[in-house]
Amino acid sequence: MKKVVLSVIAITIGILILLHIAYKPPLPNLGELKLKQEFAIKPKPDVDHSLFPELQKTFSSPQEVTEACIECHNQRHKEVIASSHWNWERISYVEGRGIASMGKSNVLNNYCIGASSNEQACAKCHIGFGMSDDHFDFENARNVDCMVCHDNSDEYIKGASMAGYPDRSVNLTKVAQSVGRPQSINCGACHFYSGGGNNVKHGDLEEALLATTRDVDVHMAANGMNMTCVDCHSAENHNIKGKLYSVSSSDQNRLTCDHCHTSTPHMDRNLDLHTSKVACQTCHIPTYAKVNPTKMEWRWSDAGKLRDGRPYHETDTVTGAETYMSIKGSFVWEKNVEPEYYWFDGHATHYVLGDQVDSIPVQINSLLGSATDRNSKIYPVKVHRGDQIYDIDNNILVQPKLWAAEKGDSAYWKDFDWDLAAEAGMKRVGLPFSGNYKFVTTEMYWPVNHMVAPKEDALSCEECHRREDSRLAGLNDFYMPGRDSHAGLDLIGKLLLIAALAGVVLHGLGRIVASIKNKEVETKEINTEL
User: Fold this and answer.
1) Torsion from C-alpha of 314, 318, 319, 322, nearest 10 degrees
2) Fewest CB within 10 angstroms: 16, 220, 330, 530, which?
């Protein structure tokens, strides 16, 4: 017994020694380690603005703060004035339109529909002061709001419906002395809350990212890289990298994952081969709206209901999200949403004020691309669906006037009269309104780029490469192994399987026949010897 135990121990030790000799540890991903080292070092401010004598005073208006900024940072305002954040539009080549100007000034959406005629409310997310109507002076440097992007005091806030002016409670002197590199809240103040609340529009951009964990977003997690927005969305001359395809149409100044990670980041050739046709986000963002729900549907046709002659709202008892508002209609919210998937080449088309409606649902924006286009990749997308007011006779979507300070100014949010709101809004944008309207269904597409999951939570191969419930079931313009069947390939596969089985059977029969013959030969030899 003792010998048996010692033998087992010796054999076990031998196997372990062989495994240790044969085992080759995976090579470190030097590219990933380099990035982690680079972003682990947080930039420190070069100067302390609180020590500048020019800022040691009480500012009576935000324009005075801007003037103080320009005294030292001269000409920077010209860069801001040339940016799309300031102009709310950019001139670029648009497919089907040629060289065109596109942006919030003329592109509609299926949330609050459009900024035109509603500037005083929408300007809460403009980097300027005094946009109360369509006569805003875009050349006036004094109206540039430096603080909204550079405040590091966490106290700067734009006032509600104040044409872009800061809230009256803001201490302008404290903010001016606290400016520095933009932080995530500076960007999030608009991008997290666009559409009237947290996570309404994007689904992957919300206030939870300000203090989150790796399971929500590996880049912005406090226990991860703890990155800020401008670590990726860097700027040169105030021209910030990145595109918002709700208003952007071109592939210029676009930001993609391979700017940092390259197109071969995996240390695995099979995975790296996917990056030629599959965007990084497709596998690495399996769900979005991980913490708070995002708005997936907005039905303007339900708006206008009153209780005792007064507007009201209803909220979800679990999430606290508004499911109905008299001024806006009904909403559907969802959490932990699986994206839809589309081919995308970096270009998009948009519904522009005055365009004829040529299909229903109306495509508020369309992401361009196809399986046969070498520049296209599969991207995860949030699709927001709803309905909005439509001029039947003129066959165009309507830009209604929604906001006004008081009743009697035709604004729907005060007077609840679609006829008045539509007539006033269309008059402002210089388009006809027939008075004959209905509500038409619309769709809007938002590429998902944030809330990147840890690599261990990335999509597995089988989530796409399977017959039933494939993530990519909606993309049927290409052949995918494991998901699709092909008559020719299936026939070849069956023939190969039959040939393999036939080979095994024939080989077995041959062995049997050979064995029988060998026995007969041996028997004859034995008989001969006898």
Assistant:
1) -10
2) 530
Are 161 and 167 in contact, with CB atoms under 8 Å apart? no
Q: What is the DSSP letter of 483?
A: T
389 residue type, one letter: I
Separation in Å, CA 483 to CA 285, 295, 519:
21, 31, 52
For 51-105, the DSSP string reads G-GGGSS--SSHHHHHHHHHHHSTTHHHHHHTSHHHHSEEEEEETTTEEEEEETT
Give strand pairing partners of 332. 297
Q: Which of 267, 326, 264 is nearest to 300 (CA)?
A: 326
Strands 377-391 vs 294-299: parallel, antiparallel or unpaired: parallel
Q: pLDDT digit string (tens) for 337-382?
A: 999 999 999 999 999 999 999 999 999 999 999 999 999 999 999 9
Phi/psi for 501 (5° steps) reads -65, -40
Enter the DSSP assignment of 292. Answer: S
Q: What is the pTM of this model?
A: 0.88
